[in-house]
């Protein structure tokens, strides 16, 4: 049984994966919470506990490019899970991401 400390919101948001400030891959956020995200990607050059950055823009909420740092906590053939805990982040960027995913998930389910 899986135990999560915060609810995950499913969605699809394109991202760039950065390592040490350099773009190294692309993918999309498949689900997110205030504690972390799962990134669907073909990029696999990550290891557990490694810190990486995600770059994204939240449509309709901000025109600004957002960047979040996170630690790799899980790897799979489809991507990797990231945890924000212990990484310095702009909480407004996390909030904007969650709000956008939440609004767009409901719109997709309702319509």
TrEMBL record:
GO terms for molecular function: cyclic-di-GMP binding. InterPro entries: PilZ_domain. Residues 3-93 form the PilZ domain. It comes from the Bacteria. This is PilZ domain-containing protein. It comes from Marinobacter persicus.
């Amino acid at each position: 049984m899986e135990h999560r400390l915060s609810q995950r919101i499913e969605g699809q948001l394109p991202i760039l994966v950065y390592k040490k400030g350099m773009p190294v891959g692309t993918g999309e956020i498949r689900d997110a919470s205030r504690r972390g995200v799962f990134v669907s990607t073909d990029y696999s050059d990550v290891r557990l506990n490694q810190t990486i950055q995600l770059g994204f823009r939240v449509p309709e909420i901000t025109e600004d490019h957002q960047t979040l740092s996170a630690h790799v906590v899980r790897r799979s053939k489809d991507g990797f899970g990231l945890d924000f805990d212990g990484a310095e982040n702009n909480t407004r960027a996390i909030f904007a991401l969650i709000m956008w995913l939440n609004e767009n998930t409901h719109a997709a389910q309702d319509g």
